[in-house]
Specification:
single chain, about 150 residues, mainly alpha, 3-stranded antiparallel β-sheet, 3 strands, about 70% helix, about 5% strand, globular
Length: about 150
């Protein structure tokens, strides 16, 4: 019997970002439509909703493929994903006009200036979050479906 390990790896990887995006979009809708907070992210939310869950699934498939060849702990493997996501996100955001890179910081939506040192701190925090998410959540789902 063929157990389709790569399909199961993809599905296990997609679960976590899909649940997180559900919570984020729900919070956004409440902030926007119930509390009338003007948050201009309608156009920018398409990237995480469309690409991030698929990349999590593909990254988990890549982890499964790499395991017999070169074994990395799953947390470390997951912490490498922001190095793929960040350039894609920055390129897409600058191309679509959401982000402008200046000498002192990044200008989001033509309103918010974020200094580069804060971007670096946020990226490092993101690496830690990705490590923990992959180690505990994606690793758990991999064990549940029997590919860990």
């Amino acid at each position: 019997m063929n157990t389709h390990p790569y399909l199961r790896a993809y599905m296990a990887g997609v679960v976590v970002p899909s649940l997180v995006l559900l919570v984020v979009v729900t919070a956004y809708f409440f902030a926007r439509f119930v509390y009338q907070i003007a948050i201009p992210i309608e156009r920018a939310i398409v990237f995480p909703m469309a690409l991030v869950p698929s990349l999590f699934g593909l990254w988990n498939m890549f982890y499964l493929w790499l395991r017999p060849r070169r074994h990395l702990p799953i947390g470390l493997h997951g912490a490498l994903l922001p190095f793929v996501l960040a350039p894609i996100g920055i390129t897409l955001a600058t191309t679509l006009g959401f982000l402008q890179l200046g000498p002192n910081g990044a200008l989001w939506f033509g309103r918010f200036v974020i200094p580069y040192h804060e971007v670096a701190i946020a990226f490092c925090i993101g690496l830690m979050v990705y490590y923990l998410v992959w180690k505990y959540l994606v690793g758990f789902f991999n064990q549940v479906i029997g590919i860990a």
